[in-house]
């Protein structure tokens, strides 16, 4: 799948908006991710308000991509929708990666910006977005049309592969 190998984090975007049709495709891809016991514990908060972006910039110090992003999606997990504690993180990470790959497929740019497990950041995000107690923000995806291309990276390391035992 070529998108796995061409995708890079994009942190600067043009002023072109992301269409609603593309937004739906991104969210459909995210929600098609695998999840533990097929619980699908994800919730997505779509942000376009630049004041909200500015507020996030005050506490998540690696969120500069929001300065030019057309929109952002906060990927959250509902901690009450899991059979085994803690799997919401993997589930929502799989959804995030699906969304990033769909963005690449659509010619959009995106970057995953972490929140969980930095409690200070998740507390601030919960307060900012009025999230209910059981809804945990995993991360923010900044999205838009890329202002510049980032070259693909080859990270294949055969020495990291172990057969049968370490
Ligand atoms: C859990 C996680 C948190 C990240 N947080 C940030 C972030 O806060 N700000 C940022 O600019 N990039 C962030 N990134 C993107 C990484 O820096 C990036 O994926 C990594 O440098 C590899 O580059 P690539 O995505 O272009 O392949 C994060 C990525 C992950 C998976």
Q: What distinguishing features does this structure have?
A:
binds flavin mononucleotide; 4-stranded antiparallel beta sheet; 34% helix; globular; alpha+beta; 166 residues
Mean pLDDT value: 98
β-strand amount: 15-25%
> What ions, cofactors and ligands are bound?
flavin mononucleotide
Tell me, what's the shape?
Answer: globular
Q: Helix and strand succession?
A: HHEHEHEHE
- Radius of gyration from the alpha-carbon trace, in angstroms: 16 Å
Task: Give a short account of the largest sheet.
Answer: 4 strands, antiparallel
Number of strands: 4
Helix content: 25-40%
The number of helical elements comes to 5
Distance between the termini: 29 Å
Quick recap of the structure?
With 166 residues, this protein is of the alpha+beta class. It has helices spanning 2-6, 20-31, 50-59, 88-105, 119-129, and strands at residues 42-47, 71-78, 109-114, 135-144.
Q: Can you describe what's shown?
A:
Helix content is 34%, strand content 18%. The chain is of the alpha+beta class. It is globular and about 50 Å long. The mean pLDDT is 98. It binds flavin mononucleotide (FMN). Flavin mononucleotide binds next to strand 3.
Helix and strand arrangement:
Elements: H1 2-6, H2 20-31, E1 42-47, H3 50-59, E2 71-78, H4 88-105, E3 109-114, H5 119-129, E4 135-144
Antiparallel strand pairs: 1-2, 2-4, 3-4
The protein binds flavin mononucleotide.
Flavin mononucleotide is lined by residues 8-9, 11, 62, 65, 111-114, 139, 153.
